[in-house]
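Revision sheet: C-alpha cells.
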Amino acid sequence: MFGTKRKKRSLPKKPKAPKASASIETWKRYAERVKAWEARVKAKTEPLKKKKALINQIRSAVSKVKAA
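Predicted:
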C-alpha cells in the first residue's frame, strides 16, 4: 500500500459535459474543449499508429525475404 506509485494516464481525460440545462455559451465552450482534447489524443496516438504500421511493413518484407 505504501510506496506504490500510481500509474499515469496514457491519454488525457475527456472533458466533462455540462448539464442539459446549461446555457448555449457553456455548450459552445464545451465543444471547443472537446476539439482541443481530440487534438491532444490524436497527437499522442498518431505516432504510435505510424510506428506500428512501419513495424508491420518491415515484418512483412522480412517474411517475404525468408520465403524466397
